[in-house]
Every structure is written in structure tokens, then in C-alpha cells.
Amino acid sequence: MPTRLPQARTRRPPPPQRHKRALLSLPLPAGRPVFPPNIVVQFVSEDDGQPLAPAVNLPANLTREALEGLLNKLSPQEDPVPFSFHVALPDDEDRIPGAPTRIVIAKSIEADILNHPINSRSFTEEDVFVVHCSPQSVFRVRPPTRCSSTLSGHASPILCASFSPTGNFLATGSGDTTARLWNLDTETPSHTLSGHKGWVLCVEWEAMERRLATGGHDGHVRIWDPKTGKPFGDALKGHSKWITSLCWEPIHLNPSAPRLASSSKDGTVRVWSLLTRRVEYTLGGHTASVNVVKWGGVGNGVLYTASSDRTVRVWDAEVGRQLHILKDHAHWVTTLALNTDFVLRTGPFDHTGKKAVSDAEAQKLALERYTAVLNTTPELLISGSDDHTLFLWSPFPTGSTAVSAAAAPTTKTKPLARLVGHALQVSHVSFSPDGRWAASASWDSSVRIWEGRTGKYVATLRGHVGGVYRVAWSADGRGVVSCGKDSTVKTWDLKTYKLKNDLTGHTDEVYCVDFVADKVVSGGRDKVVKMEPPSASFCTPGSFSFSFGLLSLTPIKAAAPAFRVEGPGFFVLPLNALRPVGVAEADGGGANGSEGSGGGGLRWRWGCGSFGARVRLNCDGAGGTVEGRGFGGREAW
């Protein structure tokens, strides 16, 4: 039997170790996919912390827009809702004092958290990311970028300024003893309201825009007709010292003849009937100056008053009976804010441009808007004081619709939260329109943002180099403006909590600021009113679509070129380019069309309120531009 020869070795010997190391150091082949990590995301409601959908496993690089679309798909609601998202930082984490307590998701969780050089220290890919979801307004207000209009006329510093609820009118009060109503198109005074014998310290619009109240250093209250500039009767006299604030009865409680409350340095609050032009009752429980009065909408109405006697008092507005005494402040209480301030101020007007045709309809619309705010939370109150703190109060329980009938006032009401962080006096506080957030201004040169329902600190906005006097929110709740001693008005980005725009133009301290619809107004010691007016946009006939903010222009199939205009403001058509076919025609938006010529063009104007309308504009021409004023900035297309 033949023997088997041993098989020859045919395999190569293993390469040396240095060859292995060289191969490992070579770059990966081009085009090899790199997959993002997957993370577990739990969507929860910002209101109550309850889950909005089951936890889902998602790619970490999913964009904010994709998260919004996914949440709307998982939601039982038919109409999509815009959301903002944030992740709260762990409570046990050591943070720099004044640093934000949350991370806003602006791009994606991967970009804003996992790959962020600082935020990545608090989270890993194995964590469950609890994403808090806050519904946003369905419309947007573009923040102002400059103060481009100067309204001159007052001979002394501007002490107060206020837009009407729709933004159609502007009223200012000055140390020259007059108030002025301004034409926002021509940027000139339409009426000068003379009658006070001292500084005009406060102006307050009725929610239906039919009346304007002014209070002066002479202790008098005057009521004016905004259309004519004439007073309704003589001054309302009774206070022995100057007026500190004014507030109208909410429209949903009394649409035809709302009462007016005035507070004074004399330590009293007086409630006036405009039918009899007499005092219905006087609230005299405070022992020092009453600095602020607010009229809430609970039950048949409640009055909230803040005083230098260190207390906040709650009153039954129907009979003037005291209900609660809130006593936790250690110094003067100088400012108050309600989470329902915005809907009480604007009454039946909203961003859709609805216009009530009767007092009954106005009352119904105002009540619907007020009730919508209170669906998830009661009427809340924030008080600010010279003791550097703020308190969040809930005088009435959730779901309460009637004022307590207790015979004696109670002092057992405790604050929901004590808001600390400011280093000097709190000068002003304001809730966002939806009541979810609150902003406070202080003499320590900062603005602080708080959660409106819990009082939890969110962030500090720094940029002023002097005391901050006032803050105001945009109608969509996405922006804040502030003014102060450093002669500037500043707009803030609430995604990054950074300064967005510095609106310079004033030459001295800025005492007041207001933000309604798309317009910001400010006034101060330099005796001028500055306004960031509606921005303009341009379009060419034949374009297929156009929009900025709430204002849009869309072609309509018609015999002649026509466009549908949606939004507030006016359009100017140059005559050399376009030949008008018809006047602006209301298209279900409650607008009144009118036309007039001037400045080389034909102007269509409609009185629809600054929250929006639908107007059909017919025009004929081969070319040219249409200039529109409304929400948003300047765009060309």
C-alpha cells in the first residue's frame, strides 16, 4: 500500500503587526454610510406633564420640523398645530446661577444636545429624552428690526403709550398735560386731548375701541371719543392725589357700558359708572398708595389691587367686597399681571380678523376667548415688589367660575411659587398672550423668563446696561421687547435667550413700550415716540403666490388679473404700472373697502383690525409693483 506524502504548505504566513496597524489607520472608503444613533423620545405636555403619545424610538438627527410632523400624526386632532420643544436639564445638576434650566430644540436633539459641547455633558444616547411640547399660535409675528418712524409733537417726556386692541390706533400721554391720538398711516397726531392740569400718567383703551381713558397727576380721570378726540362729559373727580393706573371692565361681562376702575396715590380705588358718571363704590382697604389695579374675568368680575402697604387684595367687583388679602411681600408691591391680560385687553378681536356686528356677538366672542385660556389653568396672578421678588398666586381654584361668598376676607391664600433671582427692585411683569410664560423687568438691568403656571425659572436675558423699565410680548408669544434707562429698546430671541435686535434711536431713557400685532411703540425722556411700522413687501403681477407673516397675495382666476389679499394694512398701486379695475372688496373678512389717490398711486385701505382680514383686490396691468403693509419684513419676489 503506497504511503501518502505530506501536503505542502500553500498559505502565506500572517503579516507582521506593523502591517496590521497600517491597515487599521487607513481612512474608511468614501461613501460609506454613517448612521445616526437611535434614541427613545417621550413627548409630554408642557401644561400638565402628561404623555401626549407612547414613547418612540427615533433617529437622533430628526429635525424639529419632523418632530412636529410626527407629533401631529400621533395626535387625535385633525388640524396640525405648531409646537415648540424643549428638554429640561436635570434638577440635581450643578449650574451657573442665572443659566437656563432647559434646552430648546431648534435643529435636532443630536445637534442641540448630543453633539453640543456643553449640553452633551448632561445626557447620553441611552437616556430617555422627555421632550416638553408647547402649542404655539397658528400665526407668526415677525420681530421688529429697527425704529424707523419718529412721531414728534409732545413738548415733554412721553410717560405712557398704548396701542388700541387691534393696533389701529395709538395713544400717548406726556408731561406736557396732553394725550395724543396718532394716525399710523401719516405718522402725525390725529387729535390732541387737552384738559388735564398735570402730567398724563396713564392711558387705557376700552376693548371695543370706542372709548379711551386717561389719568393724570391732577387726580382726574377723563374719557375720550377716539374718532373725534372730544371728551365724553366732564372729568371724573374724586381722588385727592394722582392716578396710578386705570382698568376697564372686561367686555365678556359688560359689552355695552363697561365700568372703569382707577387707582391712586391716595390709597383708594374708585369704580366709575359711565352711565351715571358717578362713583359706584370706593375700595378703601389699603393703607398706602395703590400702585396697580387689574380687572379679572372670574365670575361676575374681580378686582386685583397692589399697594405700597406690601399687600395684594382681591375684591368682588360686583359689590366692592374684599375677598382675599395676599400678604407675603416684604416691601412695596409695584406691578401686577394676569395670565388673562391679553384676551381681556383684546376682547372679541383675534388674529383671524373676526369682527362682531353687535354687542351680544362681541360678548360671545370675548367669552369664548377668555374661556379658552382657562381650559387648563385658573386665572393666575403675578405680583412684583421692591423686595426683589415676585409671587405667583391662584386666588380661585381650578374650574372656579364664581366668586366665593365668604362673609369675611381670607388671609389663608398662599402663593403657588416665590420667584427669586433679581438683585434689585422689580419694575414690571407681564404674561405671554397664552399665559404659559411670564417676563419680569428689574432695575438690575435684566429680564427674566419664568414658567407662567409653576413660577419655575427659565432664563435671564442680559443686554441692557441700565435698569429695565417695561417688557411687552408679541401677539404670537414668541418674542419679547424691553426698554430701559440705557435709551434702547431690545427684542429677544426666546429660542436662544439671546439679544435679537437692538432698536436704537432714542437719545435718553425709554419709559414705555407696547407691542400689538406687528407694531412696537416706545416713548421716553427725549419727547418723541418711536415706532417700528408694518414692513413692506413687493410683488409683480403674474406671480403665483406671496406671503409674509399674515399678509399674503394670491392670484384669483378672473376676467382680469386679480389677487386675493389676506392680512391687515393697506396696499399702494402705482398708477403708471397698474390700472385698477375695482375697489378693494371684502371677501368674508368684515373689511370695508375704500379708495383714494395721492402720491402718484391709488391706495386701497380696509378697516379690519390688525389681526387679519380677507380682501379681494382687482387690478389690471402689464407690470409694476404692489406694495403691501402688514405683518412681516421686506421681501422681493
Walk me through the topology:
Layout: H1 17-24, E1 38-45, E2 56-59, H2 64-74, E3 83-88, E4 102-104, H3 109-114, E5 128-135, E6 149-151, E7 158-163, E8 170-174, E9 178-183, E10 188-194, E11 200-205, E12 212-216, E13 221-224, E14 243-248, E15 260-264, E16 269-273, E17 278-283, E18 290-296, E19 302-307, E20 312-316, E21 321-326, E22 333-338, H4 341-346, H5 359-373, E23 381-385, E24 390-393, E25 417-419, E26 426-431, E27 437-442, E28 446-451, E29 457-462, E30 468-473, E31 479-484, E32 489-493, E33 498-503, E34 510-516, E35 519-524, E36 529-532, E37 535-539, E38 547-548, E39 551-556, E40 562-566, E41 570-574, E42 579-580, E43 585-586, E44 593-598, E45 601-606, E46 614-620, E47 626-630
Key traits:
single chain, 637 residues, mainly beta, Ubiquitin-like (UB roll), Methylamine Dehydrogenase, Chain H, Immunoglobulin-like, five-stranded mixed sheet, 47 strands, elongated, NLE, WD40-repeat-containing domain protein
Explain how this protein is built:
- InterPro entries: NLE, WD40/YVTN_repeat-like_dom_sf, WD40_PAC1, WD40_repeat_CS, WD40_repeat_dom_sf, WD40_rpt.
- One of its GO terms (cellular component) is nucleolus.
- Residues 39-87 form the NLE domain.
- This is WD40-repeat-containing domain protein.
- WD repeats lie at residues 151-192, 193-234, 236-282, 283-325, 419-460, 461-502.
- The chain has 637 residues and is mostly beta strands.
- The protein folds into 3 domains: 38-135, Roll (Ubiquitin-like (UB roll)), CATH 3.10.20; 149-532, YVTN repeat-like/Quinoprotein amine dehydrogenase (Methylamine Dehydrogenase, Chain H), CATH 2.130.10; 535-630, Sandwich (Immunoglobulin-like), CATH 2.60.40.
- 7% of the residues lie in helices and 39% in strands.
- The protein is built from 5 helices and 47 strands.
- Strands 38, 39, 40, 42, 43 and 46 form a 6-stranded antiparallel β-sheet that branches. Strands 2-1-5-3-4 form a 5-stranded mixed β-sheet, covered by helices on one side.
- A hairpin with a 4-residue loop joins strand 16 and strand 17 (278-283).
- The longest helix has 15 residues, at 359-373.
- It is elongated.
- It starts with 16 loop residues before the first helix and ends in a 7-residue tail after the last strand.
- Mean pLDDT is 77; it is low at 404-408 and 534-637.
